[in-house]
Amino acid sequence: LVERHALSVAPSIGILIELAARRAARAGAKTACVVGDPKFGGDGIPQLPGALAEASELNAMLEAAGFACTLAEREAATKDAVAGAASRASLVHLATHGCPDGLFLAGDADPTKPSLSTADVYSLELSAELAMLSACDTFGGELRTDGVVGIARAFLAAGASSLGVSLWPVDDRATRELMVQFYRRYLDGDDAAAAMRGAMRAMIEAKRWSPKQWAAFVVYGL
To answer: What share of the chain is helix, strand, coil (3-state, %, to 5)?
Structure first.
């Protein structure tokens, strides 16, 4: 499918209409919050060298494209710092460990208790055109009659227009490459779905990566 089409998922037609109206009402400020490889506590959560390199490289790309960036890596990527920077950003990129109920940030030690939980995200006020949750399992959650409810739905409810989310545990190195390919296209003017399609096609053409390594990501929302 991705070789032939640009794909995205919306929770409902009503939410899609609301997201389109939200985008039309927003100003075009170019600000970014970029998080990479928070310094986790103890040995329960391994560090992510690929996510650290990913954040640094994408921060440089965004600055070159005219974004005013806040980069939070390692010890600086605390819950308070990330929530504050994300609330002011038109683009949010979070390269860390994740799960259906949240994202892990600096100081987290228990792999079952992310400090930025779904409930925390619902309480944020976001104005992000794009929030990229570059982490494992960020499109999971509880299946209800109106779809899957988890961290991805919370980001839309908090104000983000489009998300990049993952369906299963993702590879650290491959995700870095996919994200670089995505932002090259996104910053050149492609919308999120077209940029993700182009990035995935680049991963196919490179013949170095299996579909399991690049196919987890979904564009969700507008």
So the answer is: 40, 20, 40
